[in-house]
Design goal:
The complex is a heterodimer of chains A (about 300) and B (about 450). By secondary structure, chain A is mainly α. Chain A is about 70% helix and about 0% strand. Chain B is of the alpha/beta class. Helix content of chain B is about 45%, strand content about 15%. The chains are: A mainly alpha (about 300), B alpha/beta (about 450).
Amino acid sequence: MKKRRNFIAWVFLVPSFVFYLIFIIYPALNAFRVSFYKWSGFSSNMEFIGLKNFGRLFLDEDFLRSLENTILLMVIGGIAVFVIAFIFSVFLSSGIRGKKLYRSIILFPFIVAPVIHSVYWGLLVFSPSSGLLNQLGKLLRIKPLQDFIFLNSKHMFWSALFVLVWVSVGFYLIIIMAGMERIPKDLYESAMLEGMSEFQMFFKITLPLLRDVLTVAIIFWCINAIKHFELFYSFKGIMPPRELWTNAIYIYVIGFGHRTPIFQLGYATAIGVVTFILIIIIAVIVRKIIKRESYEY
Amino acid sequence: MKKFLMCLLTVILALCLVVPVVSCKGAAETTIAETTVAEATTAEATVAETTPAETTAAPEPKTIVWWTLFNENEAYADVFKEWVADYKEIHPEITIDIQWIGRDNISKVAAARGAGEVIDIMDQGVGGMVPIIQEGQTLALNDYLNTPSFDGNGTWLESFIPGINENYADANGQISAIIYGLYSYGIFYDKKLWSDNGWNPPSTWDELLALCEKIKTESNVAPITIDPADSYMAFWYWNLLVRLGGTGTLYNAYMDKTGEKWGDQVYLQAAELQQELLDKGYFINGFSGFTYPEGQKRLATREAAMLLCASWVINELKDIVPEDFEWGFFSVPSVSGGVGKTTDMAYWPLGWVIFKDSKVAPEAIDFLKFCTSASNAQKLAEATISLSSIKAAGTSPLLQDMKALFDDPNIKTFLTEDGIPGDYAASPFFKNQNDLFLDKISTTKFIEEMKKGTKAYWENK
């Protein structure tokens, strides 16, 4: 009977496993191989150069800058997203009326295509001469706001990050709220009877019981942050400036060029390999930091 | 029964998996290396005259696959469709299969050909096709260019503006790209705005500075506008380099693998001239925060007096400019002491290549000759407000000022950014040029970074 069950399980697992091997594992292994070559991608001529692509990374200022942007996006963006999502979730869990409506409004930016956000914020909100914010400053006679250039080289990264945080909060709010709704209400009732404040209940009850959900959400955010592409790429029109280059954008630029042809697929793949390793390291670190304990309730 | 059903299910699942894998493998095997090369075929291909009048008994139907960088709703597409329809009338047996790929054409062509897709012709900004040419994937066209043109008045090569195609020849003089249209660079302005204010186009750098000062102090209009995009911010610098040191100045700096050539005075001087424009506040306020194409729009709205750009800007702004806007153009002024002239004109070309493994190379050549006839070339130039590569072809009335320069017998054409390759342009050139333009580094720091960057570029090559 057990043998038969195992056989049936394998029958259904094997096709997916083979599909995974062919379309996920094999290309990933091939990417590792390509990262040791100099290759333009136009022909089968590939020149083996060993670890030269990886060695070049440490001296490549554009790569280091894009890595810095990626890490800032992940850390600062992540803190902002989760803090705001928690604030919203506490607010929405407090028993207010219209909770579903508020949740839908907060989630709405997430379901709109990133390019639409880029056009809206880049051209309509942040534009120095006709944008909403500068015009508001002009109307209210707030000179710093009127003259502030949101999209110059100093500020454009933070402006784009602001938009990304605004877009992402809704999704993580849903995940956190789903976790919070699983927590039994009687724990909070008992805590209130014991005289705990809201603040204490959040840190002593809510956060510990959300550990599993938070681990998944944080790893998810980190992976998405590291491979983020669309919003930053389209934020300043058709040619993303270096200030907005993330790892993923730099891989694309080096591999294919943007307006100017570069076509260094071997080097781009090496960056991809480094990005992959970075994701693994971060996932391990996050799991170590947020230690898993099982709570039964 | 259950056992039979389980076995049947296993077989069906296995087939679902195996069949697509096998067909993918089959397609992957048809690589560039394995496709029957047309090298022997093209060597044998008649280099002799191919005129539309030539017909053979019962000609074999053939298809030419053309991947273009244009989208189907663009002005270029309308003309391409007309060409295809007109050619079909002459050669009913030839079908031109155009695929509207978009601006990422080169990347998609690379991927498609790697997967075994048949593509005979592609077009792109010719600089963007240099990697594919350098890989030896394209047909050398010199022999074909020495055959009669479609119009029959001289060789095909002679029908082009002198040097236009040759500038993209390789070190052995092999020409692989046929240019069908080009944009040139210079300073664009509104003649109406200028005549209302009594401003006149300058011919020297000092006159330009004086004019900018006049515009800044006597009007509400910013003297110069610009988009803070990668290559756009470099326009002033490499044009100034050419005016100071002549064509090839930037290219020579690129070619010096030690990077020390950047220490020559001319490179610093060009940076300082550009910096003078910035320091004196001649660029429109807030330009660093513009999102492309906001900068060039300021010319259309008359918030700025002039824009250094390529002539594509006329087409891009044609729906925004007011009705009384009159396009004016003048070449980047000469600089005192410089060897470059105002007739040194940079151009950015659009062109075709034919792939070496194309099985219809002779037919493709004939089609391209047809497209580059004077009448067809003029049709394209007028519809797209571009300059034609064909001497005898006219252009849109909006480009007459520029056309006059190209008709000047003293004209010397050179490539955008003096022909430096795309990867060098991206970094270190644009990277440091952007930092200089956005006031992140000084002119001397720019030179140091270019020296370092050039050396590192060649070390990594």
